[in-house]
Predict the 3D structure of the following.
Amino acid sequence: MAARARYYDGKVALARDVAVRPASHELLIVDAVDSSVIARWPANELVVLGDTGHEKAPPVARRGEEGRLVIEDPELRRQLAQTMPPLAALSRPPPAAVPRIALFGITLAAALGLFWIAIDVGSGIVAPYVPYELQRRLGESVAEDLVDEQPLCQGRAGLAAINGLATRLAKAADYPHPVSVRIVKGGPVNAFTLPGGILVFYSDLIDLARDGDELAGVLAHEMGHVTHYHAIKGLARQFGVEQLLKSMTGGFSDLGTVGAGGSLLLALRNGRSFERDADATAVELLEKLGLRADGVSKFFERMLEKQPVDMASVTGIWSSHPPTAERIAATRRPATGAPAFTDAQWAALQSVCGPKEKAPAPDRPKGKPSAPPPPTNRL
Amino acid sequence: MSDITPWGQPGSAAQPAPAPLDLTPSRPVYDGKLGELYGIYLRHLTLMVLTLGWSRFWGRTRLRRYLWNHVSVLGDRFEYRGRGIELMIGFVLVLAVLGLWAGLMWLIWEFGFDAQAIPGLGFMNLFYLSIVFIGIPLAFVGQYAGLRYRLSRTRWRGIRCGMVGSAWTYGGLATLLSMANALTGRLLTPLVSVNLARPRISHSFFGTQRFDFVGNAGDIYGRYLGYYFLNVFVWILAIGIAVAAVIAGGMQLGFTAAELEKLATAPDLRAVLLLIGAGVVLYIVFGLMILPLRCWWQAYLLRYLVARTRAGNVLFASAISTRQMWGFMVLNYLIVVLTLGLGWPWVMHRTLRLIARELWIYGAPQGATIGQPQQRGPRFGEGLLDMFDVTGF
């Protein structure tokens, strides 16, 4: 009988060519050359280690022993599997690759889709229930990182005016937590919302606004972000997506995930849908308070005029906004209602960073008057 | 192949060898199929997403079983008998230890620290800082312990492999050497490579047969210094070319010197585009000049390390070329990155085919003298590796 299997006794590193003879109660392993009996393994103690899906030749062993019988020959494996039930696994054909890849590829894509939806929907549901104190602390730490090299404006009357309007808007939206507005001296022309109802305005934005109603429009937009908990939702999404990517790339380290939290906070940004929600809420809140709601779209127009000069800010990290022209169309309102700020309040806001000359007229775009609307702005 | 020296010099001390040395060359055989590997991998990924990554211990184990059993040496396949649960317990243990560490840090923070002393430093900052601090040594410890675990779960001809020596000693040595290397501008690289390869190789066993490593940093220093200064020169050259290209390109696009000066302070769109262009140029120059040089050195180092390794009367050699090292280091990296990780099986497949093509084994082990090792190997595996060093199978 020709040698048809390899046998290792588990004691020394020798490979022996053997023949195997199945019987009803035992497996006889005999030397391929002189047919001397090498081992007798009782049938009920036989185990196949592994499976044909992973092992090319799953080793056969006697339970509890280190000896191994390796059978490469498919015909012999089939015979053994037929005569000895414990060895049935030997003859199972390995799963066909293509259907398997298709099956798991589709399942994977579906699982990723579900996961994505879960992140999207789940973050919206969970965000309002994140403890306010935690939100606040998060917001404060980001604020420190973002604006620590620029001074905060201290004009009391101006800050009181803008915080007063913010609080009125929050009440109108039934937002249950306090809000606070900070004004940072200088640019860029921007304002953003942090977790915990913290709003940061740059004074360049106030300079660009032509009247209090435009500023109120921006403020109402930011309050839209606040009342929808967009900052926390954005964080939750980032975290979820990061988890997803980590598990996808196989590079799954919990520590790395937590560690990435720092950069994650800085990467706070709201998606297009966030912006649309905030725009809609802005107009709604202003109208609810009986204030002029045309400031929102008017300020966007001003941004649009200003943008071509300010291309650098376009390439910034806040690139997930809808086209400004679309936002203008969506938020355009008639010039009716009470002004958001009194003249005195507006004057106080204009000098909130200290006395200065009359705010200059906004820059006109240089050259290229027909520049296409930039895809983003940072409000 | 000319720089490969067969290891066994006549009269080496640890060589009983009364019989004439059998030096029949052979190579490992890898007969895995990419499609099958992808089937296993995609199943693994799917479960990873569904279990938020917790299935990775089992998935990794299945992949190893496939890879190990599709490699054979001298006609006998490797066998991997690790279990997913062992990896998971290892991971949870490390997680628990880190929890304790965080608790300790918190105590220090609360009671031993004047919180106002360093403005802006919060508890979490302190914790991360401490993790970075202990993470580097622990990653080395984890590498060694992970190697020990994998060896202990690997069998060939029914005999288990194993590893002795302390992972902590290795971690300490590796940390010190790496720090010293960093402080000396990487001039100690040959010393570090050889002295870290030595414990990893010479503490490894196949059954009762120990591997030996007889490398010496002095052997490769000349080549390394050549590489080192050539590397410096090429960097200067590359940066010079990039700068020249940017300036020339900038002039052609009609940039004035004043505008170029403004680049750093107030970049506008054209300047940003120019900088992006410069980045691309630099990247290409880097890819064409510096990476091949690095692959050249790495291929040389690997050939050296392999040729200085032996197991009893079995000698090893590799003829891996710079170009193959490029495929291993650069292409494989690009495959993983550009496919967002989906290229992993392909990379594993390529790597094993490379090993099968370029690892030469001279002679056969004297199997009758190699027994089963006494130690059973660690009970759990790779926790630290999982935590601090997440690459590889």
